[in-house]
Amino acid sequence: MENKISDTSARLHGRACRVMPGGVNSPVRAFNAVGGEPVVMTRGQGSRLYSVDGREYIDFCGSWGPLILGHAHPTVTAAVQRAAADGTSFGTSTPSEVELAERLCDLIAAMERVRLVNSGTEACMTAVRLARGFTGRAKILKFAGGYHGHADPFLIDAGSGLLTGGIASSAGIPDAVGADTLVTPYNDPDAVNTLMQRYGTELAAVIVEPVAGNMGLVPPVAGFLEELRRLTRDAGVVLVFDEVITGFRLGPTTFGTLQGIEPDLICLGKIIGGGMPMAALGGRADIMDRLAPLGDVYQAGTLSGNPLAVAAGLSTLGVLIGTNPYPAIARKGERLAKRLRALAVEQGITMQVAQLGGMFTPFFGSGPIRNLDDAKRCDKERYARFFRKMLQAGIYLPPSPFETCFISTAHTNDDIEKFIDAAKTAVRD
Ligand code: KE4
Fold it and tell me: How many domains does the chain have?
């Protein structure tokens, strides 16, 4: 008899495949990198996800980053329910969107103006259009393994879902678009300097994840971000920090603010929407004010600043600012990483754990991991086997080795112990 756990998920996935390409609405959910069929989830509560088969999982994927407060946090749920009772969208200005915009500008040093949008992709593609309009230049520089959403200019040597589908770049991108996207290795300021010497006067923007989360977790090496800031400032190039993952993930602000580095533009998403479709682009007033209707760079959105998404975002930020959970989350991250590293040593497994605050990625490989090539040298199949065994043990990880695991305020010390208990056998081949 087929495994009961997967029967209902399998049937639903079969139906999904008949009407949705790959049976999913976002490729990385398809389990291509880890094998097997996606588990269909029907409910989340705190640190738990519940599948349509009635199974309970401790969730370390956290919807890819937004759920720093865990699933169905009562304050967030109540805020969204209250907002919904007054209507779901007005297509007008609203008091709550002004409050969120003011909050973001108060909490983020480099944010003088902000535009609310619906996805990280929208925020990042608008940042590029704005930088091009502001500088009159065409080229952009991104980093191999960096992922900034699925807009054409970014799908060159991108991270996240492109790495799970074995396509470094997407079909359908005109050569002319690709030609304006320059790519260099992450954490290599010399490579950036060489490229700036050659293309500096043609570059509109450098876009970077200040802490890379889409090739697995790869933190910046000392001085990398500061050098990017110096080189771009000297060349009149717009520096864009893509903080869709890191915004409010490691502290009650952006990573750039925590590090004292001020980019020209900042992209936010995920946490600022509390799990609802909400993202933002902000930064220097002289650049942001080039956005229509004030300026000549067009950007628009039917549901931008949607009242339900704003309610989820405002309530999430309210809990984060009010309770400052970051030290406790970081302690849990440090404990999990330390115990997992010790496990690998005890069992003679070649595995390292990148960890920063509540973000972590197990890499099945040795040697420093500073960029995409280093990450790709790790054993993807080993991660897939680890993922499947952890899933069987009731631990839900990102279904790709090129993503980041997340710890929320809802994860308990007992959840961390359960992770380690499951890993004791899952790390073994
Ligand atoms: P969205 O358009 O998916 O809201 O955001 C795009 C984006 C931009 N910048 C960064 C640093 C991001 O990580 C993302 C999206 N992250 C992926 C997972 N790492 C979303 C998951 C998915 O594609 O389904």
Answer: 2
Is 270 catalytic? The answer is yes
Pocket test for ligand 1, best of 26, 154, 214 (most atoms within 8 A of CB): 214
- The β-bridge partners of 218 are 212
Of 53, 139, 147, 157, which is the active-site residue?
Answer: 147
- Is any ligand 1 atom within 6 A of the Cβ of residue 275? no
Going from the Cα of 120 to the center of ligand 1, the distance in angstroms, rounded, reads 6
- Ligand 1 pocket, 148 CB below 6 A? yes
Residue 66 lies in a domain: no
From the number of C-beta atoms within 10 Å of its C-beta (0-12, 13-18, 19+), residue 296 rates as exposed
Confidence tier at 1 by pLDDT (50, 70, 90): very low
Given ligand 1 and candidates 126, 148, 207, which is best to mutate, with the most ligand atoms within 8 Å of its CB? 148
164 token code pair: 């799970």
Give which of 17, 24, 7, 10 is closest to 399, Cα–Cα. Answer: 24
Question: Are 34 and 163 contacting, i.e. CB atoms less than 8 angstroms apart?
Answer: no
Give the tens place of pLDDT for each residue, 193-207. Answer: 999 999 989 999 999
Q: Distance from CA of residue 363 to its chain's centroid?
A: 18
Please indicate, yes or no, whether the overall pTM of this predicted structure exceeds 0.85: yes
Q: What is the dihedral of CA 125, 126, 128, 131, to 10 degrees?
A: 180
What mean pLDDT is predicted for residues 144-161? 90
Query: Residue holding tokens 């509390």?
Result: 274
Q: 149 CB under 6 A from ligand 1?
A: yes
Residue 179 included in any domain? yes
Domain boundary among 270, 301, 322: 322
Shared domain check, 351 and 307: no
Answer yes or no: are the C-beta atoms of 429 and 83 closer than 8 Å.
no
92, burial (CB in 10 Å: exposed 0-12, middle 13-18, buried 19+):
exposed
113: tokens are: 């103006």
CATH code where residue 278 lies? 3.40.640.10
Q: List pLDDT tens digits, range 73-109.
A: 999 999 999 999 999 999 999 999 999 999 999 999 9
Task: Give the domain range for residue 195.
Answer: 74-322
Q: Is the CB of 62 under 6 A from ligand 1?
A: no
